[in-house]
Amino acid sequence: MIKLYNVSKTYAKSMTKAVDDLTLEINKGEIFGFLGPNGAGKSTTIKMITGILTPDSGTIELNGINIADNPVAAKSLVGFVPDNHEIYETLKGTEYLNFIGTMYGVPPAELRSRVEEYAALFGLTDALPDMISSYSHGMKQKLSIVAALVHEPKVWVLDEPLTGLDPQSAFQLKQLMRKQADQGNTVFFSSHVIDVVEKVCDRIGIINHGKLVAVDTLENIRNNDKVSLESLFLTITSDGESK
Ligand SMILES: Nc1ncnc2c1ncn2[C@@H]1O[C@H](COP(=O)(O)OP(=O)(O)O)[C@@H](O)[C@H]1O
Ligand SMILES: [Mg+2]
Questions:
Q1: Burial, 107: exposed, middle or buried (Cβ in 10 Å; 0-12, 13-18, 19+)?
Q2: How much of the chain, in percent, has pLDDT values that exceed 70?
Q3: Which of 72, 94, 159, 184 could bond 128 through an S-S bridge, CB–CB 3.0 to 4.6 Å?
Q4: pLDDT reading at 25 higher than 50
């Protein structure tokens, strides 16, 4: 479960709020798609949920744990796939996954079997003994997806995870998101691409200029609005990019 109450963030030297009074609750067992144009505040929100940035005001809880009060306990629940896939280039794939797994206290046998399973799913098995510096962008992206799952996170947060992913891996990732949600975990991912969100999510939030402008189930959006999500999104964000 992810709860944000009146969360705001302004970057130093900026005149405007990157995230403006955001209140949002995402339940266990749910895949939530956070949709918005470039610069809307998606990554800033995600960095606050994962504890990388501290909100200026407001509260964030993960499964009932307040991040500000119990940062380590809250962060241990999270698996995070960042949008830049900047991972330790000087390690081998296996070393990186072992490092992450050990940091999260995953028992070695379980770590081995999870790495085996997830690496196979993304066609990474043969590359694991190689240095990460030799990986393509897509392989780094897949490694960072696997790394985010080895400790079986209760809250899985992914920033633009499907951007640039090959079709097979995108399919596997969507299946994994559903599997995580079906196991009672919470999945939160951002995208600026409607098609992706439309296909995978249970509920959608649209953010523009740091403000949440719509939240609803995909079903309600389809049934009530009589317009496609695409036209709704375009209407709401009709001024295009927020900068
Ligand atoms: N490190 C930063 N310093 C200053 N401004 C930033 C920084 N990161 C993002 N911003 C600004 O905050 C706003 C929201 O950005 P971001 O959260 O990255 O949006 P999104 O992920 O939706 O594209 C934008 O106006 C962006 O330029
Ligand atoms: Mg972003």
A1: exposed
A2: 96
A3: 94
A4: yes
